[in-house]
Structure formats: C-alpha cells, structure tokens
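User: Hi! Is it possible to get a structure for several chains at once, not just one? Here's what I have:
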Amino acid sequence: MSTEILIDPITRLEGHGKIHIFLDETGGVDRAFLQIPELRGFEKFVEGRRAEDMPQITSRICGVCPMAHHMAATKALDDLYRVDPPSAAKKIRELAYSIFMVEDHALHFFFLGGPDFVVGPTAAKAERNVLGVIGKVGLEVGKEVIAVRRELRELMGRIAGRAIHPVFGLPGGVSHALPPELQPELQAAAARAVEFGTFALGVFRDVVLSNAEYVELVTSDAYTHRTYYLGLVDREGKVTFYDGTLRVVDPEGREFLTFDPKDYLGHIAEHVEPWSYMKFCFLKDVGWRGFSDGGESGIYGVAPLARLNAADGMATPRAQEAYEELVSTLGGKPIHHTLANHWARIVELVYAAERMSELAADPEIVSPDVRTLPTAVPEEGIGVVEAPRGTLIHHYETDAHGLVTKANLIVATQNNAARIAMSVDKAARRLIVGGEVDDGLLNQVEMAFRAYDPCYGCATHSLPGQMPLIVQVHDPAGDVVREIRRD
Amino acid sequence: MALCSECPRLGTKPEKLLVKGFKRPHEMVADPELCLLAQGLICLGPATRAGCGAACIGGNMPCTGCMGPTSRVVDYGAKALSALASLIDATDREEVAALAGEVADPVGTFYRYSLPASLVHHRVEPARQAGGSEP
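Assistant: Yes, the chains can be modeled jointly so their relative placement is included. Here is the combined structure:
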C-alpha cells in the first residue's frame, strides 16, 4: 500500500534501473515496475558545508549533466545572498548553459536514444549502440558528431573552468570574465552548432519520419499518456532553459498554472511508493490519484516534449520552424506521445544552438563586469533551470555564516518519475502477450523510459543501451520465469 | 608533486608566503593572474597531487583537492590543514586562533574528498607479528 509520506527517504539517482514485470494467468502483463534501487543522500551530506561550495558539490550528482546542477545551485546562491549578477555574467552563464544543452541533447539523440531508431527497435542488441549508428549513417557523420561535441565541451571548459564539474558559478556572477580573443571562436563554434542542429533534424526526418512503421510506433497508444506538462517559459511564453517562469498546461493543453519557481513547494509534492527509492512528484493543485493519467491525476511530465507543450513556441527562427513542423505533423498540441520526445529534443537542440549564436555575438559577452559582491546575510535561496531532462530545482537554507542547514533538490527525472513508471507499465502491457518475450520486445519496453532521457543512466559512462538493467518476468505465482540482465 | 608545480600562477606565489586572513570565494573578486593563496583564498594546491593541469585555477577558482594527496602524504586533510596553518602571519596565540577561526567548515574544506581515508577515525591496531608486512 502506498503512503502519503512526502519527503523521506531522499533519492538521487543514476546508473541503475530495474524493471519488474508481473504476468497474469493468461500470460499478459498484470503490472510492470521500473524500480530505482539506490539512495544517494546528497541532501543530507551537504548539510554543514559552505553554501558557495554547493555548485561544485551538487554537480557531482551527475557526470553527464553537471552543468545543470551547477547552474541551479549558482542561481540558488544569487537568491540566498539576494544579489543580482551583472548583465554580462548572466549572459556568460546562459551561453555556457546553451552550449551544454546542445552537446547533451546531441549525446542522447546519437548515442542513447538514437540507436533504437537508426539501428532499429528490434535489431540485435550488439548493434543497438553508437557504433551501430555509425555503421548506418557512415563514418564521416559519426566523426562529425564526435567532433562537434568535443569542440563544444572544450569551450564549456574554457568558460566554466571545467566541462565536467564546472567551477565558475558564484553568487552574484561568475568567477572570471571571458578573454576577448575567445569571442570569434565562440561565434564560429555557434555557427557550426546551428548547422549541426539542422543536420540532426534532417537525420530525424530521414530515419524516423520517412518510415511509416516508426511513425506508427511513435504515435501508438502503447507510448501515449495524457498528462499535465511543466516547463520554464520566458516573458513571451517561449521555451527557455536558463531563467523564466514555470508554467503548467493540462492534458487538453490549456494553461493550468503559472508560478514563480520560488513557490514550487506550493505546487509540487512528492509521493512515495514502497517498491522504489524514487520519489514521485505530482501537482499539489490536482492531487495524487495513483498511476493514472487524465485531468484528475496530478501526474505531469517534464523534459523536451513537456517544455514544448507548456510553451507557446521557440524564441529563435529555425527552432520555431522545426517546432511548427513537429506540432502540425503530430496533429496539434498538446502532444502526448512519449516517443515524440526524441523529436522535441532536436527542436530544442536547434534552439540552444541559435541561442548560443546570439549570445556569442553579443559584445557584452566579453565585458569585464562579471561580479556583484554579495552583502546580505544569507538565509534561504531557491534556484531553477531546465536541465536537459526537465525542470531542476535547488533549494538551500543556511545559517548566518552561509553554512547549509537544509537542502532540497527536485531533480528533473523525479518530475517525470510517475509518468515514466506508467509508460513502462503500459508499454509492457501492450507489447507482451501470451507470456512471449524476446530481446526485441523487451527493448521496446525499455524505449518507454529511454525517450525521457532519464538521469539514472547519466553517470554510468557506458555505451548506449548498456545501462545496467535487470528485467525479471514473473508468473502468476510470483516465480521468476525469465531474467534478463545487463549489468 | 604538488599542484603548485604545474600551476600557471606559480611565478606569482611569493617565496615566503604569509597571509593575514582567509577569504571565501564569494567574498572577493579574485585577480585572474595572481596566486590564489596569496590573495587569501584557501587553495589546496600545495597539498594536492598534480595532474589536472590546474583546471579549477584556470577557471579562477581555488583548488579543492579532488586529485587527492601527493605520494608522500598519508592523511590529506591534516596535510592541507598544516600547509594552510604554516601560512598564517601571526605570532601570538589569540591572533592565530582568530585567523584560524575564519575558516568556515574546516572538515568539509580540507577533507572534502578524503574523509573516509583519513586517519582521524581509524582505530589503532595491535602490532603485527614478526614476518608480517609493515604498513
């Protein structure tokens, strides 16, 4: 039985997942569980640490998206010390963040999610990885993908100190100004990133949209849930990653709520299940109604598709064009097809590249004025960003010396957790009939969570499709009839 | 080899480095060329193994010791603390205590990555038998 305990135990997760599928008497699926069996405990061990160390400590949560944690923490420090960074510092932060979004989304499309489509959902598992992708799209394209990501990560390192686990965020700004000679390099890289985004869109069109079978898969009921969606929007209601207002749309696509990220506790609550360390977020204003979709259930989605659903469009021209194509092809908003996340991710990649380009061209980006020194006595601070995998919130309380007394982190995948659990359960129910399972079918069950780019796979440093995973199939008596391990 | 040996700011580290007080990174704007220790920031370069190319310092932020101790150091935090303490420019006890008191969260600062390997919480084991390997 579920309980209504909302906070304890704390879960930060990456690297491990477990799907439990229970069959009924007919060999159909009674229920499938995606379980997260690990406990990280960051919120506990940051207590007593210096607040200014939070951007560096919390970025260790993840080796793939450290920039997201670094930035949410840095913004929480601005709020903690009630200090407004100079305009140039905000632009430098957003520039670094845009670069990060491009390379991180590219990582998922080409390395993690892409193999399912480019190589094929039921292809031999030894082929469903980036090498299989390169085999299909050609060595030159593969080299280009790797070269673009490498260039972007090197630039991130030069701006942020390091690409993995950045150091440049401080309350009131960033730790150093950008050298003027870096600007032309940034602009050139941004131009290449925009081209790369257009190229990625082309790959998606060629591989997925021109294949009727894939389009049917993407729009099939097995991968569809009608839920609420949450995302940051800018003043014009467009998708934004670095700063904005949180907007929720209902399953009909109507604006349901718009709130300041600082009020998140008034709108987001966490539900605990006995079978996972994951905490499942839901909308307080709607309530927890179990793992069900529709307007009565407070379950919501975040990440690329949710952001596109929550916003009115994209702030840059090429991304807006791609967005319009996506929306019209899939029959208008809101789009409830989980697998459409892959497409939405590329639309966002294009936006991030265009935003990078705008900021790289801004003369202010090399301004020496990058810090406002804080003077206030710290007490409490909240920071939010859109991580590649969805809305990310850091919330700290400190003593008067700026030592953390309490921390609460709402990580992107937690927002998605309930929807992911439903997606895995539904895909398993639709796909497994008569107790017949094979590797291809089970991969299609996995595709239900992979589309979200969940963070438990983030820091495993393994090849795509190689996230540690154990699938157990039980008969009605509860005995394990089949176990497939991928450790 | 300590990190200072490969730090691009090594040339600005005074021969006899003494500090009158410690600052936290958010309390000052650090000069991007000068030795961070000399500017009063707690940079753990002197106690930390080289090899990262002074990455954080390249980002104008002090070393936090993630590469761990040099080969001759047994307890990283104690070494880091000792390295910092030797820089304190004070002679009378009260002045020293006041300066040391400026270090917020010393355990989290000096043992951030190394507390589990620290000697601090280890028990003393009985002497090994003759013929056994010495630790």
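The CA atoms of residues 358 and 445 of chain A lie 40 Å apart. Chain A touches chain B through 28 residues (CB under 8 Å).

User: Great, thank you!
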